[in-house]
């Protein structure tokens, strides 16, 4: 059986993907992949996602230069979530979030509200043209 056939794709042919920084263990982002995106990720050794809003493949870093080099691709016990262990390229420390932060998970619940707890490392206006 093809390794891609072992994945439980949703009704739109997608699987959720978590990108985790290889060195620190930080969870950087959540995205989606279709079959082609996961195949290309495995072939190229860099993260390729599927943009649901644009209905097309999204090569992480294609606009920002913040490429994710993939070290490991893992599948969870239910075969319905993929974990990528990556090195975030393009800025030190790596920027994974379109807000210019290291991680997309920069908001923490405190006393009934969401607080931004991680700094903007680079102004998004200077990242995206």
UniProtKB/TrEMBL annotation:
Enzyme Commission identifier(s): 3.5.4.19
Co-factor requirement: Mg(2+); Zn(2+)
Keywords on record: Amino-acid biosynthesis, Cytoplasm, Histidine biosynthesis, Hydrolase, Magnesium, Metal-binding, Zinc
Keyword Protein biosynthesis listed: no
Pfam families given in the database record: PRA-CH
Span of the signal peptide: none
Molecular function GO labels: magnesium ion binding; phosphoribosyl-AMP cyclohydrolase activity; phosphoribosyl-ATP diphosphatase activity; zinc ion binding
InterPro entries linked to this entry: PRA-CH, PRib_AMP_CycHydrolase_dom, PRib_AMP_CycHydrolase_sf
GO biological process, one term: L-histidine biosynthetic process
UniProt-listed Gene3D superfamilies: Phosphoribosyl-AMP cyclohydrolase
Cofactor remark: Binds 1 Mg(2+) ion per subunit. Binds 1 zinc ion per subunit.
Subcellular location: Cytoplasm
Known pathway: Amino-acid biosynthesis; L-histidine biosynthesis; L-histidine from 5-phospho-alpha-D-ribose 1-diphosphate: step 3/9; Amino-acid biosynthesis; L-histidine biosynthesis; L-histidine from 5-phospho-alpha-D-ribose 1-diphosphate: step 2/9
Catalytic activity: 1-(5-phospho-beta-D-ribosyl)-5'-AMP + H2O = 1-(5-phospho-beta-D-ribosyl)-5-[(5-phospho-beta-D-ribosylamino)methylideneamino]imidazole-4-carboxamide; 1-(5-phospho-beta-D-ribosyl)-ATP + H2O = 1-(5-phospho-beta-D-ribosyl)-5'-AMP + diphosphate + H(+)
Residues covered by the Phosphoribosyl-AMP cyclohydrolase domain: 29-106
Residues that coordinate or bind Mg(2+): 76, 78, 80
PANTHER family reported for this sequence: HISTIDINE BIOSYNTHESIS BIFUNCTIONAL PROTEIN, HISTIDINE BIOSYNTHESIS BIFUNCTIONAL PROTEIN HIS7
Subunit structure as annotated in this protein's UniProt entry: Homodimer.
Physiological role: Catalyzes the hydrolysis of the adenine ring of phosphoribosyl-AMP.
Family statement: Belongs to the PRA-CH family. In the N-terminal section; belongs to the PRA-CH family.
Protein name: Phosphoribosyl-AMP cyclohydrolase
Organism, scientific name: Malikia granosa
Name of encoding gene: hisI
